[in-house]
Amino acid sequence: MSEANSYASKPWLALYTPGLPHEIEAAHRDALSLFRAAVARAADKPALVYFDGVVTYAELDRMSDALATALLTRGFSAGDRCAVYMQNMPQFPIAVLGAWKAGGIAVPINPMNRERELTLMLEDCAPKALVCLDQLCAEVIATLPQDVARPDIILTTSALDLQTRNDRGVLPAARMATPDGAQDLLATIAAHRDAPVARTTPKPDDIAFLVYTSGTTGLPKAAMNTHANIAFNAQAIANWYSAQDGDSILGLAPLFHVTGLIAHVVKSWHLAAPLILCFRFEPGVVLDALVEHRPAFTVSAITAFIALLSNPACTPEKFESLKVIVSGGAPIPPAVVDEFRARTGHYIHSGYGLTETNAGVIAVPHKANAPVDPASGALAIGVPKFNASVWIADENGMPAPVGEAGEIVVSGPSVSPGYWNKPKETAEAMRSDGFRTGDVAFMDAQGWFYIVDRKKDMIVASGFKVWPREVEDVLYTHPAVREAAVIGVTDPYRGETVKAVVSLKPGATATAADLDAHCRAKMAAYKRPQQIEIVEELPKTVTGKILRRMLR
């Protein structure tokens, strides 16, 4: 490995984060001990804020103790899985802690998943328990085929619990009745409040979460994220952004997603800080929460920040309390970062991580601005964080020279040991020299990394390689473009050709011809979209990542 690509040298830490160590030692080797430390020093302070509802650290500890006792009395045992199937609400971390205290593994499930996806996950990880939003129990669980094995323990809960304001911007109009075969979560907790509690402490290598990947190809895989993985990276994220004890966090990222789990839930425990939850992302509600609760930190996909900019109520005053804003999960167009800073006064820090790395392992340091590559126009995703070894593999699996594109390879204490019940996939991805991410990037001489694209998204037009990311960045510089996605489509002459699908900013007008002229002026002919389609909305995951595969 060349010196410029060497993990050991890490010259960028001295350049961009003077005074920071190359490595850090996690204060807690398991996430449950990290939470208990927060309870010890902040028992009467808010742990969870949900509209007008507040749950203190002491209350969160008692509620999760009672849930653990209830699970154990119903036959839950060490190593069993507890699926958590709901939106961003206080019952989510209660369920996670309850599962851990009972010696189990929490399995967060995307609340947008329906019968097919849920069936695959239930069959894969066979959860003993399910803690579920009442609406999802009625709409999805009740409609599963009869031959699908349900969890033995089903607890349902309402989005209207643990608050009284009943905000109609996002919350349902009414509670739903607890279905046959299920029990109410909060009633179950209340019934076990005074019962003796078994004090479980996980080992660092015990699995804390099974987090399912997005399943962009084939069946979804569950990364086995250990207590040591998540405790380490929660501390690393906090230290990277100079967070202070008690700095409140606005939970924009979905909690079922690895970003929400680590950078919101577990990080809040590391800081003994309030986690502010809004059920689901709705721009007006989020802007209100910024004013009402004054958070210090938030992270989300760039599409969420684009949506906030598009809201008429978006003003600089709304963002005054924030110290750090981070975006990851999808490449960030430089034009959006510039517009966001001009409109709000805040810089968006890029970050890069995966389910398998327990959120970010590459990020823009707190006091730095990411450079833009002059050749491609791509915004840097950052530099490797504490204890993370990151390098670029060429087509032969060897270290690529500085500036040459290849696959990102990561190793370090935040990397998952593998996939649940999938030894073949684990062996293919988790190799002796690091985790193969499938993302194509390059590193410059100063240690900055730049994402090119996913391997599978590359377009080959008349023999020329076209990376969708580069074309999308050009489209985002047009003043009317709100969102853009570029895909390859079959072409009888070129084999593949480039197609762009875009949505426009509210009130903006542009034609396909306008966008074509914009692209003609800014990129080589073989990269230019031969087809441009303007739509109202682009398809996205619940985390806000644009779904190119649905467009294809």
Report on the structure:
This protein is α/β, with parallel strands linked by helices. It has two domains: 25-387, 3-Layer(aba) Sandwich (Rossmann fold), CATH 3.40.50.12780; 458-551, ANL, C-terminal domain (GMP Synthetase, Chain A, domain 3), CATH 3.30.300.30. Helix content is 28%, strand content 23%. It contains 16 helices and 26 strands. It has a nine-stranded mixed β-sheet with strand order 2-1-11-10-12-13-14-15-16, with helices on both faces. The chain has a five-stranded parallel β-sheet with strand order 4-3-5-6-7. Helix 3 (57-73) packs across helix 7 (185-191). The longest helix is centred in the N-terminal third of the chain and has 17 residues, at 57-73. Residues 1-8 have low confidence and may be disordered.
Mean pLDDT: 90
Q: Looking at the structure, what is the overall shape?
A: globular
- How many strand units? 26
Helix run count:
16
CATH class of the largest domain: Alpha Beta
Biggest sheet record: 9 strands, mixed
| Adjacency order of strands in the biggest sheet | 2-1-11-10-12-13-14-15-16
Architecture of the largest domain, according to CATH?
A: 3-Layer(aba) Sandwich
CATH homologous superfamily identity of the largest domain: ANL, N-terminal domain
Portion in helices: 25-40%
Count of the domains? 2
